Input
Amino acid sequence: MSENHVFEPGILALCCHHCAYVAADLTGAMRLTYPPNLRIVRIPCSGKLDVIQTLGALERGLDGVMVAG
Amino acid sequence: MITGEQKPLEEIKGFLTNGRKVLVVGCGTCVTVCFAGGEKEAQILAASLRMSTKLGGDPKEVSDVTVQRQCEWEYLDVIEKEVQEADIIVSLACGIGVQAMAKHFPEKWVVPGLNTNFLGLPEEQGIWTEQCQACGDCILALTGGICPIARCAKQLLNGPCGGSENGLCEVKRVKKDGGIPVMETDARGRQRPVMEDVECAWHLIHERLSSLGKLDLLMEVQPPKDWSSSRDGGPRRIVREDLLLLDEG
Output
């Protein structure tokens, strides 16, 4: 919940090192901003991602998982 | 291999009312290769149970461990410590593994997380079919490697019945996806299960023996099968005297 009690879901973005993470990196290089409730984690390859890791994120209280690759 | 399908989460949760610490035990053999109860499925079930019981207001401490085979004592010895710390064991093995766990840890409450289905073949990715009924008296040499005991609805021994048409059996099968019947709406708006065709085993046998030039095998009339080697004699047992460990004393 944000200060004005609007639901802002915590999202984990699992980004492939070779493509989506480069885009996220570019966001920083261009001094663009993204919402603080989005957490980006670089993974070696989105093909390696397993449902267990996404469940782990939900178990730790995040509301959603985005896989980008 | 032995095939199985995981029980619905709600049913498994219903087994956990009288305990706080739950251990999900996966099995690394048959149920791993049919994606029902291996290490990955044990981890997913443990995470699902942790979240689901927490949301339900009765959080359980759920951990998981996977052994190479739950149907051998040696592999169960290595998880002794984890088992002793748990109140309830959810076994993701076939019925053999569940019973082995219950026998090996007699003071523990062991519940099944799977429904054991049949002795089957992974026909193609995601499809398993029943091939053997473990009748204890194999007749595949007479039928070209296609079993009419497991694959003919009537378990006939001397050719197809009148219900065989265009290579298909008159008995249809309820189509299922992940163990759940696939439903359709009929002309009157009622829900009914979708039925799918089943190959006639005797048609397949005839086709195969014909292509191999061995149709003469079918000319011999087979007498009624001796079912005493099957389940009709009660639970079966194999004893190999040459393999028994002799008492040194």
In short: The mean pLDDT of chain B is 95.
